[in-house]
Here is the input.
Amino acid sequence: MGDATSPSTAGEEAFPWHLGVFDAHCHPTDTVASQDDIPKMKARALVIMATRYEDQDLVRQFASRYGVQPETAKTLWDQDANNCDTQLVPSFGWHPWFSYLTFDDSGSSHSTAEKLDVFQHYKSVLSPSSSDEFISSLPEPRPLSGLLRQLRANLEDYPYALVGEIGIDRSFRLPTHWTVSDKGERNEGLTPGGREGRPLSPYRVQIDHQRKILKAQLHLAGELGRPVSVHGVAAHGILFETLRETWQGHERAVMSKRERKRRINAVNADARQATAEKDKDRISRSQPYPPRICLHSYSGPPDALKQYLEPAIPTMIYFSFSRLVNFSNRSEKAIEVVKAIPDDRILVESDCHRAGEEMDELLEDMVRLVCRIKGWSLMEGVDLLAKNFRNFVFGEQTSD
Here is the structure.
């Protein structure tokens, strides 16, 4: 690690890296060569996302080198650890941008892509209806059942792993197919499967299809008790409804003010401990909804926060923010959202596609910005954000 107390720019307060700074969402597997820069980073831990078929195994490879282990996890919270190695928390899942590459074989006679009418699949999940020429440039889709088998295997192999990046995106359009000249100019340092600078086609993935792929992954996360990192763009209402459907019928009972007052007056320390243990046991059991959800680079309006913070919701919902997405330009809306989020539900991320100094800089910038908006000192803010990360990723409730 570099100097943990060096400020990012002259005149700024020294940044307290030594307290532990955590990146809730990033994509270093998009630039595989950058993994060699991970040991040089200042961040204490990174949650690294998978998004498509090409990077699921890459996340495994990164995690096999730098992944958090039971014997190393305790060092994440050491506030005097100036020279801790950066550790990775893997996250496996299929991003909505790539959902068209999966066909829903649940309740179907289709067990393999060979039995599937590929043209019919793409015409049914893309909008507007795509041309035969465009479809012929696409790879054969794979079955949802196979995706879920792979996801389950990865989660079972990595007990700290999350599910992500998953979600819904109404604005994304598929890139055009590669031309001969495009392939000649391709950056070989980038992991295949992404846009990689190609022009965009007019085609989008139907929302109903995105919802199917998302809900299947949410249910598996609930079954295995894993937190999820969720992408939502131009789809805040649809995304909330999709998430809500997973916990519908499992809402918490919400007491009235009078009932809460009676309960507060009646309980003692032993009763509070028993309640906490009961709640912990409930969360650890298999459920159709994830135990914790992070809305990554949250871009919804302030008034939409209320629906996610309803006391009856049985899952803990967090909101993370990045310089690249939320504050690439000054955004009054984003500032108001950060102000409105409860202090124990906010996370920071880089959303960066290569590990190393740039990722550290983006993370530091975001921490400083959140602290300014919230009115926290740097020491206070870094400590609070670390506790939130611990609670979201590991489900470990912390207290002062």
